[in-house]
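Board notes, transcribed. Complex of a protein with iron/sulfur cluster.
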Amino acid sequence: MAFWEDKTLAQMTTEEWESLCDGCGKCCLNKLIDDETEELYYTNAACQLLDHKAGHCQNYKHRFKFVPSCTKVTVENIESLTWLPDSCAYRRLFMGRDLPSWHPLRTGSKEAMILAGMSVAGKVTCETRVRDIEDHIVLWPMKDAQ
Ligand code: SF4
């Protein structure tokens, strides 16, 4: 049995926990919340530390030094991180779902994740170039797939 099927999130080792991240990069996108409806909107304006072509953080180890507002996903805060996409492995497991067929832990690489349209690579712009964030609202980060 795979560790994510056998263990709770709280029982996982640090290495197992880190390996759950599929590397999609969606959590690195700026999001908006409608004041009236509280609806969440994703934008294609990415964190300035994101490598836009590769779709991953350029300095993951020291990211808090450069972006203090970055959120570390932990077993303690996963319940409150409702802005993570439905496709996110942490949210999926927290919600009692399984990992999707395209997840790197199942396939051994990020290729299937990219083919499933989950990666932000090549689809985003740097937040520092954005004038009106509302012009950058996109729907594709909300996509989920088995
Ligand atoms: S949204 Fe979840 S799975 Fe995707 S990069 Fe962020 S933490 Fe990893």
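The chain has a mean pLDDT of 96. Helices lie at 3-6, 14-19, 63-66, 89-94, 104-107, 111-115.
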